[in-house]
Amino acid sequence: MSSEARRVGGPLTTRPFLTLAAIFAVAAALILWRLVAGLGATTALSDAYPWGLWIAFDVVTGTALACGGYAMAILVYVLNKGRYHPMVRSAILTSALGYTIAGLSVVLDIGRPWLAWKIPLFFWKWNLHSALLEVALCIMSYMVVLWIELSPAFLERAAEGKGTIAGASRKILPILEKALIWIIALGMLLPTMHQSSLGSLMLLTGPKLHPLWQTPLLPLLFLVSCIAMGFAAVVFESALSSHLFRRRPETEMLAGLARAVIPVLGVFFVLRLADVAWRGQLARAFAFDRYALAFWVETALFVAGLAMLANRSRLRDLGHLFRTAMIIMLGGGLYRFNTYLVAYRPGDDVSYFPSVPEFTITLGLVALEILAYAVIVKSFPILSGAPRAAAER
Amino acid sequence: MSLDRRSLLRSLATAGAAAVAVEGTAQARVRPMAPADALGLLYDTSLCIGCKACVVACREANGTKPETSNSPGGIWDAPMDLDGQTKTVIKLYKSPDGIQRSYFKAQCMHCVDPACTNACMLGALKKKEHGIVSYDPSLCVGCRYCQMACPFNVPKFEWAKAAPKIVKCELCRERAKGQPAVDGSGFTRYPKGQGPACAEVCPRSAVIAGTRAELLAEARRRIASHPGRYKGFREDDPPKIFGETDGGGTQVLYLSHVAFEKLRLPNLSDQPVPEVQQTIQHGIYQGFAAPILLYGLLGAAVFRNRRAAGEKPEKGGES
Q1: Model ipTM value
Q2: Which of A62, A157, A299, A352 counts the highest number of beta carbons within 10 A?
Q3: How far apart are alpha carbons A77 and A181 in whole angstroms?
């Protein structure tokens, strides 16, 4: 299907590879410690702040940044913009890796991970009132869906050679192509469900969530923000990988994607401010406390993102696109991080700041993600666009 | 390219309208009621002398270890708050000028419509017999969403353990063998040694056990017979029974001679804490119809557009 996609090739164990592997090795040792010694010994989490960096960043922000596959699928398959099809596969890879890392983080974060298998299997115990159950089931299924969506890339590579595996791969591919329609549809349904439910989750914290963030619109705001962040992540990842792997950048397409972000981010921004005003909470934005500060930093990032997007002539400049995408990712990320951590107020004299192991493990998992990305795009047909040498003939 | 934006806007607008419609049409769900035999506690700050007999009795009844890390030399049981080994605690409120004082007993409030049981994925926390919010560790993965959700910050976690559990008051349900019956003083109680241990040992009856209806009647009687003794949420509010309606009502009730806000109880409306979330979630997922419909529409869209344009670059392109 993605005939344009080519593997990058080149040596795998480069110096960046070894650096990333070393960072992950440190994290892996700490992960082991966490599992043996428990959460109290390794994290700064407490009864007041039961959810910290791993949930707010790795899971809630991470999965939104991993919504590139979702956003691209909407663009290509619902809005029928077939010309963006060459970018879908790399977006799906980033999503698959992002969600897998988020899943890993959840396993580390929950206190009794050896019972996690009961969540999908004990269906007669399912509490259908639990938004978290919905999120958990959707994310688990979506992870499987993403790897199936990506499997043609692995099969295409396997089909290259001779032998039984290659033969089987050549047989499976056309069958998979047909079945993929319903998988792709599932790949759009599941994020719609769990990304909005990630917003609903915090509704249950009621008065503990600061009124600048606590709103019945949380599910809608989370859904819209993840689409904007997904597009931005695709632009970011594509610009960066074309630079690092010396491939011809798809500037035209990235500019198109950036323009697609404008209405999404615009809708989010209007909803966000109108909601605060409508609920009569605007005065709290001028309270000169840390919540007001967090709100304004968040808002400033959205304004900056929209202003950079509005500069149409510069949208064909790869550097500008890259910076714009980064600002949007930061803004959307901060909105989510604030909702889950900064704006969560369990009491007066309690606080939370992540521990060194928490930071290190998060960093290590990000390193693992980049590492896996590099290995996979080098070994399998993921990225579109010709190598630069060929393009400059 | 302007097409992109228009169609994106259109689908966003549709999604928004759908969400608003769902929120608008979704009927407020039926509020759960306390069962007729709902057991609870009534704690009266004006009677408590801070002897902490209830804390000790709770430890004995539940087999929890004394929390000595805060005391000099580590020799006294001195929990600062509820924690992974403390299911009830007595705290002291002192006004800044030191004149006004009050003890305060914390434990699970056993909400009529609890946030924690709505949060819990597999129902490890669930309202069981007599409306007691009960914990089953075999269904708990340790996600701690209950801690995030509880407006009273009651569920605690065994942070120091590699195999931790959630810890909270279960009204000594493990001790109960028979059925509770109405005793001489007119309250529904378990036989000695089977009901909530804290109420059983209290020398001043500052904490008493009974059904929610009995406790509410007793609280009203005390307010009526002691004008001026009890306070409301704020200093100038009329006297109130905390938990009668707060957050949809609780099975543990408080009477206080200092304003409840000074005891750091949350200022909840009559609306149950889970109500907003449940109304929205149930509106969206009613009968799972919306997701199934959306899945069908998405499948059809993929089918059409993958045939039409998926394989080849789109004709026309940049406009």
Answers
A1: 0.92
A2: A62
A3: 10
CA quadruple A203, A344, A116, B116: dihedral positive or negative? negative
Distance from CA of B241 to the nearest CA of A (A): 20
Say yes or no for a CB contact (<8 Å) between A77 and B15.
Answer: no
- At B10, is the pLDDT very low, low, confident or very high (cuts 50, 70, 90)? low
Q: Which residue has the higher pLDDT, B99 or B26?
A: B99
Contact A83 B313 (CB under 8 A): yes
Mean pLDDT of all residues in chain A?
Answer: 92
Report how far residue B254's alpha carbon sits from residue B232's, in angstroms, rounded to the nearest whole number.
11
Sorted by sequence, the CB contacts under 8 Å of residue A249 that are 6+ apart come out as A238, A239, A242, A243, A318, A385
Test mutation, A35, A112, A269, chain B, max B CBs within 10 A:
A112
- Name the DSSP letter for residue A114: G
Q: How far apart are CA A47 and CA A85, in angstroms?
A: 47
pLDDT of residue B312: 44
Selection from A265, A254, A255, A256 nearest residue A221 by Cα? A265
pLDDT digits 0-9 by tens, B134-163: 999 999 999 999 999 999 999 999 999 999
Which pLDDT band holds residue B242 (cuts at 50, 70, 90)?
very high
- pLDDT at residue B318 in the model: 35
Q: What is the pLDDT of residues A69-103, one digit of tens each?
A: 999 999 998 898 888 988 899 999 999 999 999 99
Distance from CA of B226 to the nearest CA of A (A): 33
Residues of chain A neighbouring B298 (CB-CB closer than 8 A): 77-78, 185, 188-189
Q: How far apart are CA A99 and CA B90, in angstroms?
A: 45
Amino acid, res. B165: K
Residue A273: burial class (beta carbons within 10 Å; 0-12, 13-18, 19+): middle
Closest CA to B267 of B295, B291, B287, B245: B245
Decide the pairing of beta strands B101-106 and B125-127.
Answer: unpaired
Summarize the confidence of residues B215-227 as an average pLDDT: 97
DSSP state of B170: -
Contact A217, A338 (CB under 8 A): no
Indicate whether B313 pLDDT > 50: no
Task: Write the burial class of residue B68 (CB in 10 Å: 0-12 exposed, 13-18 middle, 19+ buried).
Answer: middle
The 10s digit of each residue's pLDDT in A329-354 is: 999 999 999 999 999 999 888 999 99
Interface probe, candidates B127, B152, B153, B280, chain A, greatest A C-beta count within 10 A: B280
Integer distance in angstroms from the first to the last C-alpha of chain B?
A: 6
Q: Residue A337 is inside which H or E element, if any?
A: helix A318-337
A119, A181, A219 member nearest B302 (Cβ): A181
Weakly modelled stretches of chain A, pLDDT under 50: 1-2, 390-393
Contact A64, A336 (CB under 8 A): yes
CB-based contact A78 B11, cutoff 8 Å? yes
The CA distance from A32 to A108, in Å, is 10
Structure confidence by residue, pLDDT tens digits, B185-211 = 889 999 989 999 999 999 999 999 999
Residue B315 has pLDDT above 70, yes or no: no
CB contact under 8 A, B159 and A76: no
CA dist., res. A232 & res. A308, Å (int): 12
Instruction: Please report, for residues A94, A268, B67, B180, the alpha-carbon distance to residue B60 in angstroms, rounded to integers and kept in the order given.
Output: 54, 55, 13, 21
Give CA–CA dist A94/A150, Å, rounded. 10
* Residue-level pLDDT at A199: 96
Task: Determine the pLDDT at residue A4.
Answer: 73
Residues A54, A295: Cα–Cα separation, whole Å: 22
Closest residue to A81, CB basis, from B118, B160, B314:
B314
Asked if residue B170 lies in contact with residue B153, where contact means CB atoms within 8 angstroms, the answer is no
What letter represents residue B141's amino acid?
A: V
Structure tokens at B106: 């914390």
